[in-house]
Specification:
This protein is mostly helical. The chain contains 19 helices and no strands. InterPro entries: DUF6297.
Length: 414
């Protein structure tokens, strides 16, 4: 029995246009050259990351473990499950071809993430002058984490799978806090490989997704693409899931604020991983300004939860339906996000306490700074495309501009 070759969409570039000689080729060559050039400036990078301190390889191990957790969580989102509705409808897109395309897209994303994590581990190990045992442990950890991410992403979602990256991040925290060496990291890599073997069998493959799942994935991808084209980052904030016990009551500003937060609780696990990443990053790279690190981590953890305010702010009709003024929306949502920032700051405090790190008190001002920056991002006015490109860029970076300026001030003051 012969298998029909998959139909190629006319006009679509192969390999992302890397080999067509256009600007994609230039960007690929420039990016690859910059990556290799970093290995020729190891002393400068050592001074930037570690200063005059000795390299704490247990902290570096913990940092790589948390990066593997982020790698795993990224694949569990299964953003590669999509197909163009036009291709599904009008082209001879057989089921076997559809599965092949989805699987190929998954492995392409997987290879990119492996390169990112592996390159980071190799560069940091080279900067610190790691021994042979350190290199072996880093390679084993990256390989086992990549295998575990692949075997779980290739099957449909199972209940509680998002807890896996959190457990792995906590394992990285334990490695950094206990000062464990390469042998312990290799044992952890072996345990991850055993878990990967255990979950590799059974379950329904992701490539067998139906038309509805493929079209939903395409719609989400199209929304992200339009957000990038029109420089509207609020479109990237995830949608809220319904909260039944709140939706049955009369809507108020406070209830809608909490509904927007509770409907996005699935991103709370990412906040835990980010807290571990920031705390271990501060221990591993003592020369990097800790104020900027805390502010960036807090902003990344809090910005998904301001999506409810962003949806109201972009729809004047909804604001009129609610009957709340702008200052009331800012105040109520600000109090709710400030409470979340306090929780995340407490979690980060537990991480630093576990690691034995005591940052100076002005550094903790990064948490309220991130809260204000996230609210500023959500309350951005509509884009004005009549201005120049630079002015439009400043409009798109609303909230991030405050975060950058505040981080510089915190870094200088500490």
């Amino acid at each position: 029995m012969t298998t029909k070759a998959p139909t190629r969409v006319p006009g679509r570039q192969r390999f992302g246009g890397v080999f067509n000689g256009d600007y994609q080729t230039f960007l690929a060559l420039f990016g690859g050259g910059a990556l290799f050039t970093a290995f020729e400036n190891l002393p400068k990078l050592h001074a930037f990351l570690f200063g005059q301190s000795l390299v704490d390889f247990p902290a570096v191990f913990g940092l790589l473990i948390v990066l593997c957790a982020i790698f795993w969580r990224s694949l569990l989102r299964r953003g590669f499950v999509w197909a163009e509705p036009a291709a599904l409808t009008w082209m001879d897109f057989a089921s076997v071809d559809r599965r092949r395309v989805v699987v190929k897209r998954m492995w392409t994303l997987w290879c990119g993430l492996v390169v990112v994590v592996g390159y980071t581990g190799a560069l940091v190990t080279a900067i610190g002058g790691g021994s042979k045992d350190v290199w072996i442990a880093m390679a084993a950890l990256t390989a086992s984490g990549a295998i575990l991410a692949a075997v779980t992403a290739r099957r449909t979602a199972i209940r509680g799978e998002t807890a896996g990256p959190v457990v792995l991040a906590l394992a990285g925290l334990a490695v950094a806090a206990a000062g464990l060496g390469p042998i312990a990291v290799e044992l952890l890599a072996g345990a991850l490989f055993v878990v990967a073997i255990a979950v590799a069998f059974g379950g329904r493959p992701t490539s067998a997704a139906g038309r509805g799942d493929l079209v939903d994935g395409w719609n989400a991808r199209l929304l992200r693409a339009m957000a990038a084209v029109f420089m509207d980052p609020m479109l990237l904030i995830p949608e809220s899931r319904p909260v039944p016990w709140l939706s049955l009551r009369r809507p108020t500003t406070l209830r809608l604020a909490w509904a927007g937060v509770l409907g996005r609780l699935r991103y709370a696990a990412a906040g835990v991983v980010l807290a571990c990443l920031v705390g271990i990053g501060h221990l591993a790279f003592p020369a990097v300004p800790v104020g900027a690190m805390f502010a960036l981590g807090a902003y990344a953890a809090l910005v998904p939860f301001v999506g409810g305010l962003g949806e109201l702010w972009r729809n004047p009709g909804r604001k009129r339906w609610l009957g709340a003024s702008d200052w009331e929306l800012r105040l109520v949502n600000g109090l709710v996000i400030a409470a979340l920032g306090l929780v995340w700051g407490g979690l980060l405090g537990l991480v630093t306490l576990t690691l034995g790190v005591t940052p100076a008190w002005p550094v903790w001002l990064a948490i309220p700074l991130a809260v204000v920056a996230a609210l500023r991002t959500a309350t951005r006015p509509p884009m004005n495309y009549d201005v120049s490109g630079g002015a439009a860029g400043f409009q798109a970076l609303r909230g991030v501009d405050l975060l950058i300026v505040g981080s510089i001030v915190l870094s200088v003051s500490t």
